[in-house]
Design goal:
Blueprint: H1 3-17, E1 21-30, E2 36-48, E3 51-70, E4 78-99, E5 104-108
């Protein structure tokens, strides 16, 4: 999902459900070799008849290759090094529903063709 489609989705949600609470966070993860991977999460929260819903978009560099580094020690553990694209980004959408009992977000598993707002 590119930036334009994300903005269109947000506009559709806002028209249908009203005010949105938009947030953004940037964070860094590492692969097994200690290389940094810069990530970004944009999300919106809104209220529906089902309760509070959060739609998140995760953006990170596209993984173009994986290098496996094997260790011949007794543990037999290997490490994975990710080769990342400098130009292309990978984007993933996830949908969450607020669980009042657990007081945390619970991911809703839904196929993209079933997403209708």
């Amino acid at each position: 999902m590119n930036e334009e489609k994300w903005e269109n989705l947000l506009d559709t949600i806002e028209v249908k459900f009203g005010a949105l609470e938009r947030k953004n966070r940037k964070f860094v993860s590492t692969d097994d070799m200690g290389n940094e991977i810069k990530n970004e999460e944009d999300w919106v929260e809104f209220k529906t008849e089902l309760g509070r819903i959060k739609v998140s978009r995760f953006v990170r560099p596209l993984i173009i290759d994986k290098k496996y580094h094997y260790n011949r020690s007794s543990t037999g553990m290997g490490q994975v090094e990710y080769i990342l694209s400098e130009n292309e980004m990978s984007q993933k959408i996830k949908i969450f529903k607020w669980d009042d009992v657990e007081r945390d977000w619970e991911e809703i598993s839904i196929r993209p063709e079933e997403m209708k707002f």
